[in-house]
Amino acid sequence: MFVSTRSRSRTVAAIGLLIATSAVLAACGRADSTPEATRAAVDDEPATGVVDVWAPSGDANYLDTLLEGFRDDNPDATVNVTVIPVNEYVQKIQAAIASDTLPDVALVKADGTLLSGTWSAVPDGLVELEDFFPGTLALGQIDGVQYLVPWYNNVRVLLYRSDFAEKAGVEAPTTWDEWVPFLEGLREGGAAQPFGSDVSWGTDTGLFVSTLAKSAGAELVSEDGTEWQVDTPEMHAAFEQYQALFADGLTSPDGPTFLDQVSSFTSGQIGSLVTGPWVLAQFNEAVGEEWMQDNLGVAMLPAGPAGSVGMLVGGGWTVSDSSDNPDAAWKVIRYLGQVDTELQQYEGFGSLPPRTTAWEEADLTDDAYLEPFFEQMETASASPAIATWDQFTKMLGGQAEKMIRGGVSIDDVLAEGQSLADSIGTGR
Questions:
Q1: Is 310:379 a contact under the CB 8 Å cutoff?
Q2: How far apart are the first and last CA of the chain?
Q3: What DSSP string runs through 205-237?
Q4: Torsion angle of alpha carbons 200, 202, 207, 213, nearest 10°?
Q5: Alpha-carbon gap, residue 174 to 244, rounded angstroms
Q6: Residues near 363 by Cβ (< 8 Å), separated by ≥ 6?
Q7: 82 has which bridge partners?
Q8: Cα–Cα distance, 324 to 147 (Å, whole number)
Q9: Residue 390: what pLDDT?
Q10: Which residues form the signal peptide (predicted)?
Q11: pLDDT, tens only, 42-71
Q12: How distant is the alpha carbon of residue 384 from its chain centre?
């Protein structure tokens, strides 16, 4: 049966826990609690003309289907959606900024891309900003001005085969010390490979290592935002923990890859993985609710020395300053920001809605699968607003590969990583 690490009755309180995260996000220097709009309101007339939309693969894979309703309601508007591979997206956006060839609408991550100064502020009254989780709003604000209409705001948690765990008599780990014994138990219970880590050895790997580092108490960037901090005791502890997950064949450096994780998990090839909420819909499509009830467990990430600290990632929709059709572009975003549209996206792809009202309307707070995601949000740490964040995480992923595949010592990996990070810089 389904296993959660917390009482199901606490799920209803999750909205309050998410709201509490606003203080954490505000501490990042990103946002004012009351966003302002600096652009005139958009009218209610049907949209006309051409609107080009860019988004990274993943959450946006369902976007073209999602916009069918907008096209029906706005027959004189043409919306062209371009879904770009997620590993290429930031580079494509940066190149478009440099060449002044941005699309009308873009899904912008809450990272350095937002700081480029090429985006328009959200028009007054476009959507009910007070309905969104404060954390999602904070990720899209600069100096109190809202630039993003939130679209997704995710943390990753631990998913595991509860049937294997029950057979071996082990429970989901709550600390790093319990993690390896738990994985050994999953193998005893039937998992061919107890843990399926992302082995792209790029940005996603680096994000996982960064999450471990935050759980060890690391500050990835200096207080003034001018220097990356890699060669530290906290980062050393994170790399040690990452290395431990590969010991004795607990994880394979050869995969399965991200695209094969669902099939590998349901077949029993891997017994656990760290992933986001989108995978729940993929599991439901692949094997159905009954299988999930009997075999899927969801838990918060095991806590390191500084606790169970997830890495908050997210982004939202915005319009480029160079758009030739800004009113129609904002109308597309207004449609995407409606409760019904967000719930359709959740049903179609599994993206968690950024509005509290959407959660309430669909009774998502009563879903036991989502409870650990809420609880992980309570201690989530926002990714830093640094222009080179993606380069930094990609570098960390490469250093992790040198340790796992190349056998390079952690001390040497971090020393070289610090040098590489200094070369990358923070853009400040």
A1: yes
A2: 50
A3: HHHHHHHHHHHTT--SB-TTSS-B--SSHHHHH
A4: 100
A5: 16
A6: none
A7: 54
A8: 18
A9: 85
A10: 1-26
A11: 999 999 999 999 999 987 889 999 999 999
A12: 13
Q: Give the pairing of strands 311-319 and 105-109.
A: antiparallel
Structure letter (DSSP) for residue 124? T
Q: Report d(CA 386, CA 195) in Å as an integer.
A: 31
Kindly report, residue by residue over 198-234, the tens digit of the pLDDT.
899 999 999 999 999 999 999 999 988 899 999 999 9
CA 328 → CA 38, 113, 322, 325, distances in Å?
A: 18, 23, 13, 6
From CA 162, how far away is CA 32, in angstroms rounded? 42
Separation of alpha carbons 287 and 284, rounded Å: 6
* The two structure tokens encoding residue 189: 């219970």
Cβ contacts of residue 227 below 8 Å, gap of 6+? 221, 422, 426
Structure tokens at 366: 């009563």
Instruction: State the Rg of the chain over Cα.
Output: 21
Q: Are 103 and 18 in contact (CB under 8 A)?
A: no
- Which 3 state secondary structure label does DSSP give 351? coil
Residue 4 has pLDDT above 80, yes or no: no
Domains and CATH numbers, the chain: 8-154+313-382 (3.40.190.10), 167-310+386-424 (3.40.190.10)
